[in-house]
Each structure stands twice: as structure tokens, then as C-alpha cells.
Write a structure and sequence with these properties.
The complex is a heterodimer of chains A (213) and B (368).
Chain A: E1 3-6, E2 10-14, E3 17-25, E4 28-33, E5 36-41, E6 46-52, E7 61-72, E8 77-83, E9 87-92, E10 95-101, E11 107-110, E12 117-124, E13 135-143, E14 149-157, E15 164-165, E16 170-171, E17 175-179, E18 185-188, E19 198-199, E20 209-210
Parallel strand pairs in A: 7-12, 13-16, 13-17
Antiparallel strand pairs in A: 1-6, 2-3, 3-4, 4-5, 6-9, 7-14, 8-13, 9-10, 11-12, 15-16, 15-19, 17-18, 18-20
Chain B: H1 3-7, E1 10-16, E2 19-24, H2 25-53, H3 64-86, E3 92-93, E4 96-97, H4 98-124, H5 131-157, H6 160-169, H7 171-180, H8 182-197, E5 205-209, E6 215-223, E7 227-232, E8 237-241, H9 242-246, E9 249-252, E10 258-267, H10 273-286, E11 297-303, E12 308-317, H11 330-343
Antiparallel strand pairs in B: 1-2, 3-4, 5-6, 5-9, 6-7, 7-8, 10-12, 11-12
Helix pairs in contact in B: 2-3, 3-4, 4-5, 10-11
The chains are: A mainly beta (213), B alpha+beta (368).
Chain lengths: 213, 368
């Protein structure tokens, strides 16, 4: 799965995607994934396979529809988990040699055809504890209003987001959703959803997102 | 004859409108020295700016172009001082003092540099997303400053009065010229209208249909004062006069984030239409660029001559449903639908016709 690998003949599986590292003789190794093939010079360096946000062809936001709606009482908080789409980035030092989809690629229009935006699309159950999926998104919802609030989807700003990973799976940063009014504000905190996870890169501050629809 | 006498020797003498005029050896030497000093200073400035341009991050201002401009400016100023040293700045060309003419040239040149650098600065400081609009504003600003500078320079040179008289005198010629240049004016005005109307911007994918029904499609590369340039999908550049563009039907293919596409598939009358719709829906669901929301619609639209026509309404990201991107979106989708229908044994029929003959048809076979 995600992590660091030595440059030697081996087979790596990321989700359903297979990566082959083949010794070509001499000083060369071949990195191969499907149609992607790169020659690498033999050396002491390691290469990394790290999770990357599911930006697909270049979208900025991720829309996850919940299979069940969730209702939050006034002035209360709730935390839950969702499964999420993820991509993988293969890096040698700072150089990205490959990037691919680990999860199903699908998009949706978030908002209206006039002023909406194209989002990466996913549907998930709402899990009370961490699900056994390739990528997990932990959501913490604060209802600061005096009304019951309903959520059936969440939209997260993911462009250039840091990702976290363990040996088993990838994680998006902790997402905070706050109801201050009728329009909830979503904050991709850039912080790990739990301890002991490795970051894919230095976290950058990301803009908060108002979920108008 | 001592050195002082040599320096004070007159090499040229004459009479100007301002009085008697003479050029001495001393004034010539002074002028020469000023010119040489000017050239040396200009070279030093140019070298310094070029050297600074290699290490600075402000390349938009500190570059070779600026170095050449400063070089020209320094030489020009040195030339004015050297002419002043000779004492011929009061000399008149076409009854305009030479000093006024040179000042006018200097003012125009300075204004041109200022306008050009300001335009570059506006473009460099603008984020990519706002670039198309700022490009047009920068051009408008540039041409406005140049026009003002032109008239200011004329005024300094003292030509404006003469120019007005000339323009008044040439009234009839102006009308004639006006008729002749009406296309240019129409293009200019159309360009202005389009700037405010904003039917398209630089970077937009557009489809244009002119009055004759000719269709042109591509990316807007540049919008100029008189014309707009469009790069067609085959890589050719088309220049369209703004007037023609303004009168065309403009379809902006990327104004909104998503577009609905309509595809038609014909299946045989003997095939199960419900099953065909299910198969097509499955393909649409698996296809990444067919948006999950708004949900695609698949329905029987008409009974054709040879087939039952199924229509697909599918929404797709606008940026992926144009030009070469159609290869990985629309055409890939059509191929997958064809393959899925083939796998399920759903026939896509050829156009066919059943002919009935009123009388029995007799066929005669001849031995060869």
C-alpha cells in the first residue's frame, strides 16, 4: 500500500492498481503501471507512493453524498467517518513520476448550471467508527444554531490538500463543518484525523468553503 | 594664433529668425564632448540594467528592453544638450522651433514607454483566472495613453493650431475618408461593444455562425481593437473583424461549468428497448465524465424508418466536451455504448427498406 519502497525488483499493489519494478540490467530499473513506463537509474534512493487528493482532471472540490441523512440537535457536536475517493502519487524525491486513480473516477455538478462547479463525486455510508476502506474522511460537525440541522452531503475543498497515510489506508485531513447559520462552513483543517499518521507533504492553509447547496 | 583664438574661430555663420547665428569650434567641441559623454553614460546604464536583469525577480521591468529604452533616452537627451551647446535649438523647422519638436518627441517617447511598461505590469501582476479581462483593459489603457500623448506632443510642438486649421480645411476630405474608413470605425465600435457585452473572453471555447450559416469553432486567442483571433481545433488561426463577429451568432461553449449533450442511438425494432436503456444507463454510470448530477436521462424519443431511436441527455464538464477532449469524452462514450449493446445482443440496424411489388416479380437467369 502507501509508503516508501526500495528500488529493487518487486510488485506493489495500491488498491486494485498494480505497479511493477523490474531490473532491466546494467544500471537501470523499469517502473511500469499499465501504459506508464519509466526508466530509473539504480541507486540507494527510495521511492514513495503517497496518497493524493482526488482532483481528477483538475477539480477543486470533493462532493460526498451520504447514503443516509444525519440530523444534529441544536448546540451539539457529532463526529463520523466517510469513505472517500483517493489518488496515488509516485515520487522520487521531489519529482512526481506517476499519478493515478485508486478509486472510481466520477464527477458531479455541485450547485446550479449557471454558478456551480464541477466536483469529484462519491457516495458513502456514514460510519460511526473508521471504516475498512482505501481512503477515509473524518468529519466533525458543530451545530451552533438553535435549530436541528440535517446533512445529506459534504463538500470539501481539496485542491493541493495534504493527505495522511498509514500502512493500510489513506486519510483526508480532519474536516470541520460548522453551522453558524443556514449555510454550513466547511474547513479542511490540514490536521491529521488521528495520531500516528504520516503526511504526504507540508500542509498548506486552504480556504474555507461555504456549502450553499 | 593661440589655442583660445582657434577655439573661438567661427566655422559657420548665418542669420536665423531669432537673429544672427554662428557656430564656433568651441561650441562644436562642447557638443562633441556632451555626445561622447552621453554615449558612455548610456552604455554604462544599459550594461548595469542588463546585469541586474540576470539576478532580479522583477524581470517584467528590469530587462533588456528597458536597458535599450534607457540607452536611447540617454543618447537622445545628450543630443538635445549638444544641439543646445551649438546653439541651434532656436532654429526653426517648418516654422516650429527645433527645441519644441525635440521636446514633443521626448514626451511622446516617455509616454509610450510608460504606457507599455504599465500594460506589461498589469498583465504580470494579474492571476491567470482574471487575465482575459485585464488583457483587454490593459490594451485600452495603452491606446488611451498613446492617443493622449500624441495630441500632447502635437500641442508642445505647436502643431495643434495648424492641425485644427488643417482638419477644418480638410472637412470634405474627412467626410470622404470617413466613408472610406467606416469599416475600420465599425470594427472599432463593435470591439468596444463586445468588451462591455462580454459574449466571449480570451481563453473561451466558442462556436460562431455567420449570416451565411458558416460555422467556425475554436478557442479565443486574442481580442484586439479591430479584430478577434480564434485558434480553430485544427491549429489554424482565424482573424475575424470585430464587426463580423458582433453580428455573428456566438455560442460560448465554456461559459458555464457543465453542458448537456444529446446523443441518439438507434436500435432494431426487434430489440428490447427497456433492456437497451438499462445497458446504456450502466455505461453512463461507469463513464467518469458523464456527471452523476444532474443525472443522465435515457428515453425512447421516436420510431424511425429503420430503428427505434433512443435519446441520451448527459451532462458533462464543459471543458471536457470541446475540441480534442471529445476523444476521451463523447467519442469514447459512443464507442463504449456500441460495445455494450453488442455484448448484450442488441442490434443497431442499418437503414433498410422493404419493397412490395404489385405484380409477381419474375427473375430470369441467363447462362453465361
Amino acid at each position: 500500500m502507501f509508503g516508501e519502497y526500495k528500488l529493487r525488483t518487486q510488485f506493489i499493489k495500491i488498491g486494485d492498481v498494480k505497479i511493477h519494478i523490474v531490473d532491466e540490467g546494467g544500471d537501470l530499473f523499469r517502473y511500469r503501471r499499465g501504459d506508464v513506463s519509466v526508466l530509473l537509474k539504480r541507486g540507494e534512493g527510495k521511492f514513495e507512493v503517497v496518497p493524493a487528493p482526488a482532483e481528477g482532471y483538475g477539480v477543486k472540490i470533493l462532493l460526498i453524498d451520504f447514503e443516509d441523512r444525519i440530523l444534529i440537535p441544536p448546540k451539539e457536536e457529532v463526529g463520523f467517518y466517510l469513505s472517500a475517493p483517493v489518488e496515488a502519487e509516485v515520487r522520487l524525491g521531489e519529482t512526481v513520476i506517476d499519478r493515478f486513480h485508486v478509486s472510481r473516477e466520477k464527477y458531479a455538478l455541485y450547485g446550479t448550471p449557471e454558478v456551480g462547479a464541477i466536483a469529484r463525486y462519491w457516495t458513502s455510508k456514514v460510519y460511526p467508527s473508521e471504516p475498512d476502506s482505501t481512503c477515509v474522511l473524518r468529519v466533525s460537525v458543530i451545530n451552533g444554531t438553535a435549530k436541528w440541522r440535517e446533512m445529506d452531503h459534504v463538500v470539501v475543498y481539496i485542491r493541493d490538500s495534504v493527505m495522511f497515510y498509514s500502512g493500510e489506508r489513506a486519510y483526508y485531513p480532519l474536516v470541520m463543518v460548522e453551522f453558524k447559520s443556514d449555510v454550513p462552513e466547511v474547513n479542511n483543517t490540514g490536521k491529521p484525523p488521528k495520531e500516528g499518521l504520516k503526511p504526504s507533504k507540508e500542509p498548506l492553509p486552504l480556504p474555507n468553503f461555504l456549502m450553499r447547496w | 594664433m593661440n589655442a583660445s583664438d582657434v577655439l573661438n574661430t567661427t566655422v559657420f555663420s548665418g542669420t536665423l529668425e531669432t537673429g544672427p547665428f554662428e557656430i564656433t569650434v568651441l561650441s562644436l567641441v562642447k557638443a562633441g564632448l556632451i555626445l561622447v559623454a552621453g554615449f558612455i553614460l548610456a552604455k554604462l546604464i544599459k550594461r548595469q540594467v542588463i546585469s541586474a536583469s540576470r539576478s532580479t525577480t522583477y524581470v517584467w521591468i528590469i530587462n533588456e528592453e528597458t536597458a535599450s529604452a534607457l540607452y536611447n533616452l540617454t543618447v537622445f537627451i545628450a543630443l538635445i544638450y549638444s544641439l543646445d551647446a551649438i546653439g541651434i535649438l532656436s532654429y526653426k523647422l517648418w516654422s516650429i522651433p527645433l527645441s519644441n519638436l525635440l521636446t514633443a518627441v521626448l514626451v511622446f517617447y516617455f509616454s509610450y514607454l510608460l504606457a507599455k511598461k504599465s500594460k506589461d505590469y498589469m498583465l504580470v501582476r494579474t492571476p491567470q483566472s482574471k487575465l482575459p479581462e485585464v488583457q483587454i483593459k490593459a490594451k485600452l489603457f495603452y491606446y488611451t495613453v498613446i492617443t493622449f500623448a500624441f495630441f500632447l506632443a502635437l500641442n508642445i510642438a505647436g502643431i495643434s493650431g495648424e492641425l485644427s486649421t488643417l482638419l477644418a480645411a480638410a472637412g470634405i476630405t474627412g467626410i470622404v475618408l470617413g466613408f472610406a474608413s467606416q469599416t475600420v470605425v465599425a470594427n472599432f465600435v463593435s470591439g468596444l461593444f463586445m468588451y462591455f457585452d462580454k459574449p466571449l473572453q480570451i481563453g473561451d471555447a466558442v462556436r460562431l455562425r455567420d449570416a451565411s450559416g458558416n460555422i467556425l469553432e475554436g478557442i479565443v486567442e486574442d481580442m484586439r481593437i479591430l479584430s478577434t483571433r480564434i485558434r480553430q481545433w485544427d491549429g489554424t488561426l482565424v482573424r475575424i473583424p470585430n464587426e463580423k463577429l458582433f453580428n455573428s451568432e456566438i455560442i460560448n461553449l465554456q461559459r458555464y461549468p457543465a453542458r448537456r449533450t444529446t446523443l441518439q442511438i438507434g436500435i432494431a425494432y426487434s430489440a428490447d428497448a427497456e433492456k437497451a436503456i438499462e445497458v446504456i444507463k450502466r455505461v453512463l454510470d461507469e463513464e467518469p465524465y458523464v456527471l452523476a448530477k444532474p443525472e443522465p436521462r435515457v428515453f425512447v424519443e421516436s420510431m424511425g424508418d429503420s430503428s427505434v431511436n433512443i435519446t441520451i441527455w448527459a451532462w458533462a464538464p464543459s471543458s471536457l466536451w470541446v475540441g480534442e477532449n471529445l476523444l476521451r469524452s463523447k467519442y469514447m462514450l459512443l464507442q463504449k455504448i456500441k460495445e455494450a449493446l453488442d455484448r448484450e445482443g442488441i442490434e443497431i440496424p442499418f437503414p433498410q427498406r422493404v419493397n412490395w411489388f404489385a405484380n409477381e416479380l419474375r427473375v430470369k437467369v441467363e447462362d453465361s
